[in-house]
Amino acid sequence: MAGERLAKRVRVVALKGGELTLEADSAALAYELKSFAGKKLLADLKRHRGAEFVTSLKFRAGAVSDGSG
Questions:
Q1: pLDDT of residue 68
Q2: Per the structure, how many domains does the chain have?
Q3: Residue predicted with more confidence, 55 or 66
Q4: Which domain holds residue 57?
Q5: Which residues fall within 8 angstroms of residue 54, CB to CB, at 6 or more apart?
Q6: Angle at CA 39, nearest 5°, toward 10 and 14?
């Protein structure tokens, strides 16, 4: 499933003033999410109970651990 693969490559790093900051394991992925998938991800997220307060997504590149190490 695409969502599971993506979850291994992206993590939540902050929530401030309604802006949810997500860190991707590469600059290319962060750019792809921001440019092509950001609006859909935000709309999908807002359908989940408790996430209605998220008003925007911010993507950045960084180190993402898979939890195995």
A1: 56
A2: 1
A3: 55
A4: 2-61
A5: 15, 18, 19, 20, 42, 45, 46
A6: 40
CA–CA separation, 48 and 45 (whole Å): 6
57 within 8 A of 23, measured Cβ to Cβ: no
User: Does some domain include residue 18?
Assistant: yes
Alpha-carbon gap, residue 4 to 45, rounded angstroms? 15
Q: For residue 27, what are the β-bridge partners?
A: none
d(CA 51, CA 20): 10
Beta bridge partners of residue 23, listed in sequence order: 11, 60
Q: Tell me if the pTM is above 0.70.
A: yes
